[in-house]
Amino acid sequence: MRYWLMKSEPAEVSIDDLAARPGQTVPWFGVRNYQARNFMRDAMRVGDLAFFYHSGCAEPGIAGICQVCSTPYPDATQFDPASPYFDAKSSPANPRWLLVDVRLIEKTPYVSLRRLRGASELANMPLLARANRLSITPVSAAEWQFITGTLMA
DNA sequence: GCCAACGTTGGC
DNA sequence: GCCAACGTTGGC
Question: What's the predicted TM-score (pTM) here?
Answer without folding.
Answer: 0.95
